[in-house]
Amino acid sequence: MSSTQVFMTFPQPQHDATFLRRTQRFLALMELADGTQELVYCANSGAMASDFSCGSRALIWESGDLKRKRRFTWRAIETNGLWVGTDTHLSNRIVEEALRLRLIPLLEEYCIVFREHVVEPGVRVDFIVSGPTGECLVEVKSSNVVENGVARYPDSPTPRGLKQLKSLTRKASAGHRAVLLFLVQRNDARSFEVSASRDPAYYQAFEAAIAAGVEVIVLGVSVHPEGFGKPKFLPYNTKVDDVIEPNDNSLIRLEKDT
How far is CA 29 from the centre of its chain? Predict the structure, then answer.
């Protein structure tokens, strides 16, 4: 991919690695170029089961922070010739850059006012943006699972996401504009839907949020060793045809490791 096609480059320094296995939700074992093995931080707490294959090429970022427990962060993995982004922390950076360049449908005329802003006790929203009709709350969620061209969220239970969604619903019910923006870090999705089987409570809350006036925007970005391609709009399905089946990866113990 040429540098002119890259919408946002990966933060540097970045290294090639070989994925060996995921030891738990926030850790993955990688083999570095010199043959050594190291546990790297995984920011995505979801299952991402379809993207795991021992021996796959991976990209990792080196923090350079001597106080950080893990030296590297997992950025992406190549599966069947397709690069998939694994760092959910980059989702907000991608959306922020897209907002700055006015590339997001329905938000082209909005600019960022606040980042990580508290809207209710214990609840933060990723962005508050301002435009012709006033302020708008924008919450960003990452989708990494794609099956038969359909991207889905979530791929495992998300109590935090449920809490944020209910907060957005209350804000929308009170007359505030609220947007739930799903970002798909891979280039093989043609549409999007919220998964009913992986988290029924979130799906029900999503239906209630739509009824209350919460808007949905879905963007997909292609992933390359250099960075991300420009975001493209994806339609979302209102009728769920959920084919994701439970698997052992969805039961990995949740442990925080930063």
Answer: 21
pLDDT digits (tens, 9 = 90+) for 109-143: 999 999 999 999 999 999 999 999 899 999 999 99
Of 98, 133, 99, 140, the residue nearest 117 (C-alpha): 140
**Residue where the block lists tokens 């083999």:** 31
pLDDT in tens, 220-231: 999 999 999 999
What pTM was estimated for this model as a whole?
Answer: 0.87
The bridge status of strand 134-143 relative to strand 177-184 is parallel
Q: List strand residue ranges (DSSP E) for 90-222, in order.
A: 111-120, 123-131, 134-143, 145-147, 150-153, 177-184, 191-194, 215-220
Maximum alpha-carbon separation in the chain = 57
168-197 burial string, b = 16+ CB within 10 Å, else e?
Answer: bbbbbeeebbbbbbbbbbbbbbebbbbbbe
3-state secondary structure of 81: coil
Closest CA to 185 of 7, 18, 5: 7
Distances (CA, A) of 12 to 41, 141, 214, 229: 16, 24, 36, 17
The answer to whether 80 touches 22, Cβ cutoff 8 Å, is no
Look at 11-20, 33-42, 58-67, 228-237 and tell me which has the smallest mean pLDDT. 58-67
As a whole number of angstroms, the distance between CA 12 and CA 80 comes to 25
Q: Rounded distance, CA 211 to CA 234, Å? A: 20
Contact 22, 46 (CB under 8 A): no
